[in-house]
Amino acid sequence: MASWLQSIRPPNRLLRLLRSLGLADDPNPGDRPELERPWLINWQWVPKRSAGPGFGPHEYARARARGAEVARATFGDEQWDKLRRQGFLDLRSRRIPGLTYRLRVGRRIQLVWDSVEEAMGSPWPYDYLCINPTYPLPAVEYAAQLYLYLRDREDEVVRVAAPQPFDQPLGRVF
Amino acid sequence: MGRIIVANRHGDQVVEWDPAVVTEEGRAAVAEAEKLISEARARGCAVSKKVDGKHVLDNAPFDPQVEEYQIIAPIAGG
Questions:
Q1: What ipTM does this complex have?
Q2: Whole-structure pTM value
Q3: Which residue in the set A35, A73, A160 is minimally distant from B75, CB to CB?
């Protein structure tokens, strides 16, 4: 497995200056980085809520903007508008009676129960589920991915979820 | 034209192919896309495909006729 150190890029400002002077080649015309396959990289040592080395404000802004486009396409317009309007999306569990998953961008999943009796049957001792992607992603893009997992592969969510007693931002998104 | 959206820290990056192109280059693009999907799945990623305008998680083998795939990050608790 490759290390995240391999993803370090030379300082962007310096490279731009060298390219403007004709002293360095532009390997990615159009300002598009090469295809990155994050599943091949070990992200373990990248700080929480960071995209890793080589990312400045410009890269974060661009990644978040592109992530929002993908998220919109993944959610579909109706769900996307709902998420923007109310700040969360609710998905009914198909596996656990009386449970609704409340999905919020960049935060833990909140469990909402129809009744106290049904909450007593919860497989988890707490009402927040901490589930992260294994590599850094824009928060809104990951929210769309988690939506797909909750809707189409709930068993996987139940299997990996780490129940927590309080709400908190997720650590592997930015 | 088919495409794979590779969701990563850059937001997304796209790999495209045209199933109608039967040249060596066209076949290579399809093979590259198939390899990318297989590699991601082998590393624990999920894959979604666009069906009737929306994405659904998919376990089927790569199909070059699919309009759009997306590679979905593996998830972990904590």
A1: 0.94
A2: 0.86
A3: A160
